[in-house]
Write a structure and sequence with these properties.
Chain lengths: ~400, ~400
């Protein structure tokens, strides 16, 4: 088949797949242009609901109602209310998630909390060696401040690393570089079999695939909201503490927002029941309510459908890349097996930094990850099959 | 003098004082209505610059430029850039303040950092007993996690409490209930004389009076930005680390944003030089850039002038209250001496909660603090003398 015929065939297939896509209508709920935006795993696109909501929060709730909005506009309860909105996306019943602070701060709360829940005699924290760096840095601090030792491990060798000293294990559900998905159910089981607590970082899975926190008995989890949840730049992160652990969850950041009676202004600390115990200080309302508006896109959307589309998109993209890009120019480091693939494709490529610059100049936005990775994130809510085909075609032209 | 003549005289004086007020023109830079807003020490009013800026951040920077804005819209450097904007308001040279996280989280960073800077053999943290509760709760956690003992002390008895075991002292510059201003220079000196580090909470002074962090050799400081700095509900807090301590500042929250080379994604942690070391995770851009716009109000404004007006306002309000309110109905718990007064007046009053509700219904917004305090905050940028007179008059009517 000629190159032109090959392209025509893929373009035609893309059009058919887009026409059959039950999620395709969601694209119009985002502000998008003619760029192929494959960086939603770094910063999700702007949902059309958000600007109007933010304007209302600023002009009316802050500007006109001012201090009254803490009660009357629901500011005070936003962290747990928005947590409950995220809950179904990660397979959690209500009352277990609060939104607030950065992912890093939540990793600290979760890991220190996990070590304290693990109890006496357990003095080791395991963290995946390939993790997004902040998790490792914060885990080192949590270990130092709880008298634990930190051991980086390859998640594939976790079972041999687990032992009677293990207090907690921090794992990323998807590796931010390779896009590899780890087996949360079996790793959580192995951690529990060793008597330790499982802390999962969901930054690269929440909103991209079913997580099943409750179903799989995860102990604590954290995640950001600015990737597949489209909450906006630096929007607040979240903390999940499983319901039956909440009474014993002992936060290292017991700010007044986590007090049982915050406005009693008592000098003695008494933690609130439930997920509220994970709150710290005054929530940043502008960012938080922008996120709340962004989450409305999810009404009536099934995460299973999102996952099915995500796999179809990354399959199709890999197929186009294999067909279009000359042999040997790129190598996928993202697993081919569906069970091991997140919602991104990472291609190893010589001179990846410069290549990504050219791709962006040519209307395909992914990102470069040190030292040699081209990273393409597929957000099923707004990326279509024609986007995937075009991205592969532009990549081939850029490398050609 | 008849009651009516008395009111007329105060109204006339208020008009004269407002006419002579060099800061009066700033009022039009805020969104205000005919309410007397004396709750700017809880949530500052909306600066007129903010809505348009936020709209631009949402629609153009996020919606159109998306991920490029981290560089091209200056998102990445916002924490230190906005820190430098706050610096002159608290008497700090550039390069010592970063904005981000909540006050509670910054108290944790500052106190743990201070204990580590104090070095071996010092294992006690002192905290003012009357402090805003979150400072005490977080100080208890910092003490627990650094092997220190926490001792609440009355700031008036600080010098007898200081000793060779004291590592750090956390003090509020102004007491949130009484409005009492503590003597930062002399208390800092006493702390230093004992070989300990001084950590100041500036929530109730930044933007209301000169602080002089550098001049008085304060070691670390934190503060919120939603009171006298008008950054918006839950806008990010800040951390000051004095320049000569930065190289040894050892943060308990070493997130990737505080790394010397964050995008190297190195598995080993190497702290950034300077104030950046106080950063943690990804900054919440919407709230942060709203704050940046809010701070533009301060261009060309002298904090000394703000302080002079603040004292004149609270003096005048107290004078009106004394004249209007029947003897014995309220008692000021705010010190009469200027050197001991912040920018609020706290009146003890029977049934204060219900009284404040009626005041608010009658167009005078202050707040109630448990158990018996009516709190009136005076933000010199937008509160005038006529407001002070009217507030006292409505208070007298409400109690009458």
């Amino acid at each position: 088949m000629s190159e032109r015929a090959q392209v025509s065939a893929f373009v035609e297939r893309a059009a058919e797949l887009d026409a059959a896509d039950g999620l395709a209508a969601l694209r119009k709920r985002f502000v998008l242009d003619d760029v192929v935006y494959l960086d939603g795993n770094s910063l999700g696109a702007l949902p059309v609901e958000v600007p109007g909501r933010v304007e209302d929060v600023v002009r009316r709730q802050w500007g006109e109602m001012r201090i009254r909005s803490w009660d009357e506009s629901g500011w005070w309860t936003a962290p747990e209310r928005i947590g409950d909105r995220i809950a179904p996306l990660v397979g959690a019943a209500p009352g277990q998630i609060v939104v607030g602070d950065s992912t890093s701060v939540n990793v600290f709360k979760a890991l220190v909390g996990a070590v304290r829940l693990a109890g006496e005699g357990r003095d080791e924290i395991l963290v995946d060696a390939t993790t997004f760096p902040t998790d490792g840095y914060i885990a080192a601090s949590a270990a130092r401040m709880t008298g634990c030792e930190l051991r980086p491990v390859d998640p594939d060798e976790l079972s041999s690393a687990l032992g009677p000293r293990t207090a907690a294990v921090l794992l990323n559900h998807v590796d931010y570089r390779t896009g590899r998905l780890y087996d949360l159910p079996s790793l959580t089981s192995a951690i529990h079999a060793a008597g330790a607590l499982a802390v999962w970082d969901l930054c690269h899975t929440a909103g991209a695939l079913p997580v099943g926190l409750d179903e799989h008995g995860v102990d604590l989890a954290v995640g950001c909201t600015y990737k597949y949840l489209n909450g906006g730049p630096g929007s607040p992160a979240y903390l999940y503490v499983r319901a039956d652990l909440q009474d014993r969850f002992d936060s290292p950041l017991p700010g007044w927002n986590s007090h049982a009676e915050p406005f009693a202004m008592s000098s003695s600390y008494e933690p609130a029941p439930g997920a509220l115990r994970g709150r710290v200080g005054t929530p940043d309302i502008l960012s938080m309510l922008a996120l709340e508006a962004a989450l409305e896109v999810w009404d009536g959307v099934s995460v299973e459908d999102v996952r099915a589309k995500s796999l179809a998109l990354t399959d199709f993209f890999l197929e186009c890349v294999a067909a279009y890009v000359p042999e040997g120019r790129v190598e996928s480091v993202t697993p081919a097996a569906h069970a091991e693939r997140g919602s991104q494709v990472a291609l190893r490529c010589a001179d990846a930094g410069a290549v990504m610059k050219r791709l962006i100049d040519n209307g395909v936005v992914g990102d470069f990850r040190h030292p040699d990775i081209l990273r393409f994130g597929f957000t099923p809510l707004y990326v279509g099959f024609a986007d995937a085909e075009r991205a592969a075609r532009v990549l081939a032209e850029t490398l050609g």
